Amino acid sequence: MVLKLLGDKTRLAMMKLLEKNECCVCEFVAIFGISQSAISQHLRKLRDVGLVKENRKGQWIFYSLNKGSDMHGLVMKILELVPSQEERIAELEKQGLRVSCG
Amino acid sequence: MVLKLLGDKTRLAMMKLLEKNECCVCEFVAIFGISQSAISQHLRKLRDVGLVKENRKGQWIFYSLNKGSDMHGLVMKILELVPSQEERIAELEKQGLRVSCG
DNA sequence: ACAGCATATCAGCATATGCTTATATATACA
DNA sequence: TGTATATATAAGCATATGCTGATATGCTGT
Asked: Which CATH class is domain A2-81?
């Protein structure tokens, strides 16, 4: 269930980041400071219910919000109320950890 | 956190019922078929974060949505997308289990 | 083919969660 | 005061959840 998935603070922050950015697994790892395995498992849950979609670019897999999801409207309303996470992206850039291949 | 609380199907259904009705603990017990204790614990969680408020009427305590909650707007948006639970109230009435003390 | 990096999956563990039963508290009424 | 009803709290249990470390898979470049 979508609300249960968004009830986890890490997943909610991931979704907020994906609202404005495409991100790959290793970026989330750098941002959240948890294992690559944990990030991958969160993304799988989000993908399994169709909230995000993946887009492979070479060795990276970029995730983005799935705007075609049934729940997309609700998700956007919820994300509106979540504080911006853009500083985390800025921090990544500053550390030179942003993966942009595009 | 609000989303986590609403991520539980019982609590979400309780909130949907409270959208249109004031309900007491024993009504929820009849509706959901779980113990009085379990219902009471769900209500406590909802009350602790301010989503619902209580209103004692004699030996009953009636719960209702707390419209003054910071999260009330979000909650209403979410509840719009939850299927109506009004048949459950109708069922209660039919069984003569509705507690109305006006 | 091989090494290196990114990602996914598996197995196991600690904690959180939702439930139950038993008990305590609060109100109503005889 | 005593009994019945409604609700709250405490203790314990089974399952779910989120994490880690180890391993598998997939792509890249040599």
From this structure: mainly alpha
pLDDT at A102 over 70: no
CA distance B72 to A60: 40
The CATH code that applies to domain B2-93 is 1.10.10.10
- B contact set with A (CB within 8 A): 1, 3-9, 12, 74, 77-78, 81
- Binary contact (A78, B74; C-beta < 8 A): yes
Q: Is A19 left (phi over 0), alpha (psi -120 to 50) or beta?
A: alpha
pLDDT, tens only, A44-60: 999 999 999 999 999 99
Phi, psi of B81 (to 5 degrees): -95, 5
Domain boundaries along the sequence of chain A: 2-81
Looking at every residue in chain B, the average pLDDT score rounds to 95
Looking at chain A, which residue has its C-alpha nearest residue B5?
A7
Whether the Cβ atoms of residue B8 and residue A2 lie closer than 8 Å to each other: no
Share of chain A above pLDDT 90, in %: 91
Please judge whether B4 and A1 are an interchain contact, meaning their C-beta atoms are less than 8 angstroms apart: no
- Identify the pLDDT of residue A101: 59
CA-nearest residue of chain A to B81?
A74
